[in-house]
Automatic annotation (TrEMBL):
CDD domains: RNaseJ_MBL-fold (cd07714). This is Metallo-beta-lactamase domain-containing protein. Pfam families: Lactamase_B_2 (PF12706), RMMBL (PF07521), RNase_J_b_CASP (PF22505). It comes from Salinicola rhizosphaerae. It comes from the Bacteria.
Length: 562
């Protein structure tokens, strides 16, 4: 028997590594790293607002371990412009100093953040949907998808041995208000893929997500029935909803105004890129009080109950531009993010005290259209892609589990439900968890810039007095501030009234007190410390808490004498 002199060995390739640092087992703060042949890339870099903590700090992903393990990315790819996908980049990018690739809308949002925080913007590279970028052995293609913000993309990630689709956030919208409908062709052309790393947010919801056109139609029906002012709250990044509201205002004889800095900034960027050319001229906020109520439609931030938002200020009767009146209408056109339910209910209770009508998903489910796929949409995508493996991300554990169950019913393998910090290897057609890195919460004061530290206050000198009067109302869970903040000093103080109001709101809302005496005891010393950090001369502080008349549904709580 003659043996061949040359034996051809099958070529071996390094594994593809997946390392999520946010967005697995939680909603928000999305950041995923892919590694191949000792090179790494990052997909998204988001943040979340910790409304469960005092002062609502920002939380960003923990990346401290990356340098020590030679996992610093050579490039960042952003799927779309939502804060939970790009909001942390200005904090983390200085550690990486690498190119950032994103579509033009996301790039302009990042440019504004970088410039605001003193960072150079040369690394921000705009690419059009459909473009392909080659970086260190990775080929990354931006595949356009429909979502609640324009220019959203899934990412096709290719190595010499792997075909992966990272979906980002998406839905199958046949009638988007902005942009083209979802096209299946690029995804059908990829089939079969080795792995899908996929959005799980609505994986426990059967059926199909609602189109933006349907939500716009429902909004118009409600607005036409309103007789007073109309305030619609939605996410500032939902450009399609803002565009639809502008058209609704014109057709219903109302004029548009914007409330909230993030809303104004987002509209300015979207207008610059041509997405809101048809938005009617806007009324300056300081002129709103001169218009008849039936001619006003306000688009406001704060749908998640954020204490510092425009909507919260309206609910507490302390917005500087406008006071709501009985018979006005507030429309919540945004889904509650898990964890924000208590804040949103407190916000709605504030409008109820003002005798303002509230419209939300309970009264009319069609007022909001989710930007994420329900189960039927997931089934369609997987029929097009024909994936062998799935890793469910972008969701809490219950969403990941529901997503895994759905995929298995379609014959797709789901070997693991990844958690933040794990390193998973895709090798020889299988997924294997390798390491688990311990991640620590990275909290940042929401008013602090990257690299900024609080400067020590100069030598203290005792001022005379500072008197602060606060009107508070008992609620089911404690107390909340209403009305205007009143303060007076017999010397000039460089005091930021907005910052003081925000601090008081957060402290009062979080205080577990049952009486006014307890409430004062719990906030007086922290308030004095807060003032000492910010004022060159420390005043003698007089704090007066004044109870407002409680409403029937909110009884004043008393301490038992037993």
């Amino acid at each position: 028997m003659i043996r061949p002199r040359i034996q051809v060995r099958q070529r071996t390739y390094p594994p593809l590594l997946f390392h999520p640092l946010g967005g697995c087992g939680e909603i928000g703060m999305n950041l995923s790293l892919y590694g191949y042949d000792d090179h790494w890339i990052a997909i998204d870099c988001g943040m979340m607002i910790r409304q469960d903590l005092p002062d609502q700090p920002l939380q960003i992903p923990d990346t401290d371990h990356l340098a020590a393990h030679h996992m610093v990315p050579s490039a960042v790819f952003i799927t779309h412009g939502h804060e939970d996908h790009l909001g942390a980049l200005a904090w983390i990018w200085p550690r990486w100093n690498c190119p950032v690739y994103a579509t033009p809308l996301a790039i302009e949002m990042l440019r504004a953040k970088f410039l605001e925080q003193g960072l150079k913007t040369e690394a921000l590279i705009a690419v059009k949907p459909g473009a392909r970028v080659e970086v260190c052995g990775f080929g990354v293609e931006f595949l356009p998808v429909t979502h609640s913000i324009p220019e959203s993309c899934a990412l096709s990630i290719m190595t010499p041995a792997h075909r992966v689709l990272h979906t980002g956030d998406w839905k199958l919208d046949p009638a988007p208000v902005v942009g083209a409908p979802f096209s299946p062709k690029p995804f059908q052309a990829m089939a079969p893929v080795d792995l899908v790393v996929a959005d799980s947010t609505n994986a426990d919801v059967e059926g199909h997500s609602r189109s933006e056109a349907e939500a716009a139609s429902a909004l118009e029906g409600v607005v036409r029935e309103c007789r007073g002012r109309v305030i619609v709250s939605c996410f500032a990044s939902n450009i399609a909803r803002i565009k639809a509201l502008g058209q609704i205002a014109e057709r219903s004889g109302r004029r548009v105004a914007l409330l909230g800095r993030s809303m104004e900034r987002m509209v300015a960027i979207a207008t610059q890129l041509g997405y809101l050319d048809e938005l009617p001229p806007r009324v300056p906020t300081h002129d709103l009080g001169y218009l008849p109520p039936e001619e006003v439609l306000i688009i406001a931030t704060g749908s998640q109950g954020e204490p510092r938002s425009a909507l919260s200020r309206l609910a507490q009767g302390r917005h500087p531009a406008i006071d709501l009146e009985p018979g006005d209408d507030v429309i919540f056109s945004a889904r509650a993010i898990p964890g924000n339910e208590r804040l949103i209910e407190r916000l709605k209770a504030g409008f109820k005290r003002l005798h303002v009508n509230v419209h939300d998903e309970r009264s009319d489910p069609a007022l909001h259209a989710s930007g994420h796929p329900a189960r039927e949409e997931l089934r369609k995508l997987y029929r097009w892609l024909q994936p062998k493996l799935l890793m469910p991300v972008h969701g809490e554990s219950v969403h990941q589990e529901a997503h895994g169950e759905l995929a298995r019913s379609l014959g797709i393998e789901v070997p693991t439900l990844p958690k933040n910090g794990v390193v998973v290897a895709l090798e020889n057609g299988s997924l294997t968890p390798r390491h688990q890195h311990h991640l620590r919460p990275q909290l940042i004061a929401s008013r602090t810039r990257p690299g900024q530290s609080s400067s020590p206050v100069a030598a203290r000198h005792r001022a005379k007095t500072l008197a602060i009067a606060v009107t508070v109302l008992p609620t089911e869970t404690g107390w909340t501030r209403i009305g205007r903040l009143l303060w007076d000093s017999d010397t000039a103080l460089p005091l930021d009234e907005d910052a003081l109001s925000d601090w008081l709101d957060a402290r009062i809302d979080a205080a577990p007190s049952e009486t006014l005496l307890q409430l004062r005891q719990q906030i007086f010393a922290p308030l004095r410390d807060w003032l000492e950090e910010r004022l060159p001369a420390v005043p003698e502080l007089h704090l007066q808490l004044m109870p407002a008349d409680p409403q029937p549904e909110f009884e004043v709580k008393t301490v038992s004498t037993r």
